[in-house]
Amino acid sequence: MPDFASIEFWAAVAQIIVIDVVLSGDNAVVIALACRNLTPEQRRRGIFWGVAGAVSLRVVLTAFAALVMNQPWLKLAGGLVLLWIAIKLLLPEEDGGEDIEAADHLWGAVKTIVVADFVMSLDNVIGVAGAAHGNLMLLLFGLAVSIPLIVWSSQMIMHAMERWPAIVLLGAGLLGYVAGEMMLTDAGMIVLLPGAPAWAPEAAGLSGAILVVALGRWLERRMLAKQDATIL
Fold first, then answer.
1. How many domains does the chain have?
2. Segments forming the whole domain that contains residue 64
3. Residues 44-67: tens digit of each pLDDT
4. d(Cα 126, Cα 176) in Å, to the nearest integer?
5. Cα 103–92–83 angle (5° rounding)?
């Protein structure tokens, strides 16, 4: 049973919520694009069933990832992937989502939402599973809190991230922190580093956050300079 009186429990829940919120902007765009040709009534039903299917699939995938994450070297691999996801979050978007096909009937929109969410959920699955530290109850509790927030507030969250880019920066830094902590607490790494001090995972997390923000900002400046040179 989760320890609801523990500060560590609520800190992990907060991490799960922030990761889910920051990484779900694209999913909200997919929902809007897939349902844009439906009637208002069908649009409400399409969003409901599409989100229900996508969320159910994501819960199953994330629970599976959390259960196997304690196997040797999986946390290390997941942490490396999460580092790249965090850096990519800071880079300029090259595709605004125009390739998402708008369905003209309800179940076509539902299928589009579920399939697109499945393809786009790798970042959410790895990030949330890492923040849960293999604790299935913590994972389910965190998802239960964050999913309704995302479903009912997705447009507000997207506007907030556009208006205050610092939210995305903080989210990317948090992903970097989770990635660094994941890699150092991997079962294989623990065997290789038996004498590591107790504060080592936190130090690795802080290093991951700094790496993500510094490298992400550098790559962002390079990409923007390249785009400006192309326009000129």
1. 1
2. 7-231
3. 787 778 777 777 777 787 777 777
4. 12
5. 100
